[in-house]
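Holo model, nicotinamide-adenine-dinucleotide. Inputs:
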Amino acid sequence: MFDLAGRTALVTGAGQNTGAGIARALAGRGALVLVNDLAAERAAAVADEITADGGRATPLPFDVTDLDAVTRAITISGPVDIVVNNAGNGGAEQMRPTPFRDMDPADWESPIEVNLRGVMNCCHAAINPMVERGWGRIITISSGAGASGVGIGVAPYSAGKGGGLGFMRSFALENAAFGVTANSIALGLMDNVGSSDVTAHLATSVPCKRLGSPDDVGALCVYLASDDAGWITAQTINLNGGSVTS
Ligand SMILES: NC(=O)c1ccc[n+]([C@@H]2O[C@H](COP(=O)([O-])OP(=O)(O)OC[C@H]3O[C@@H](n4cnc5c(N)ncnc54)[C@H](O)[C@@H]3O)[C@@H](O)[C@H]2O)c1
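Output:
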C-alpha cells in the first residue's frame, strides 16, 4: 500500500519544516521528489539529505508566485504526477498584532500572492499533462485559519488560505473525471522550533496535547498521493490534534 515508486512529486516550499517533512515522506515511499523553495540553498540541502538517505530528489528552486517561472520549471522537469502546494508564509511575520483596520495595504499582498496565487499557478502549470495521462494528485497545505477566525492580524492570511480552499474544491470537481484528485489539508498549530516553554504552553490547548510535526503531515500526504486514495477528492481534511473547527 501507498507505494509511490515511479511517481514524480513536486513539493513547494520544501526547504524546511513541514515541506521538508512532506518531501522526505514521499521520497521514503519511492517517489522522485522535486524539492522546491524560494531559497535555493535550502532546497539543495533537503534534496541532498534525501539522497544521502537512499531516496531520489532534485532541487527545483523557483518562486511560486511567478507563473512564468513555475511553468518553466515544471515543463523542464518533465511530467509531474503529484503536486504538494506547501509554500506559505503564515509564520510569525504574518501574524502581526495589527488589526486589519490599521494595516498597510502593502501587507496584504504577500499572504494572498503566496497562499492563493501560488497554489493556482502550480495547479495551472501541472494539470494538463495530468489530465492527458489520466492520473494526478494535488494536495494543498492550508490552515484552520482558512475556514475559521483566528485572531488579530491574521485576516489577510485567512483570506489567502480560505481562497485556496475554495479554489481547490472547484478545481477538484473540474478534474475528478480525469483521474486527478485535489484535496486540502487544514493544519493546526505546528511545532517548528522543537520543545520550548512556548510550544509546551500552546500544546495545552490541543486535545492531543502536542503540536503537529512534519511527519504527521508527510504521512497524510503519502496516503493522499497514493493510488489507494483515488476516491477522495474535493475535500478539506483537518489535521490538528483534535482542535475544534467550524
Ligand atoms: N507553522 C504552522 O503552525 C502552520 C499552521 C497552519 C498552516 N501552516 C501552513 O503549512 C505550510 C508550511 O508551513 P511551515 O511552518 O513549514 O512554513 P515555513 O515558513 O517554515 O516554510 C515555508 C517555506 O516556504 C518557502 N516559500 C515561501 N514563499 C515561497 C515562494 N513564493 N515560492 C517558493 N517557496 C516559498 C519558504 O522559503 C520556506 O522555506 C504553509 O503553507 C503554512 O501556511 C503552517
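The first helix runs from residue 17 to 28. The chain is about 40% helix and 15% strand.
Archived with the compound record.
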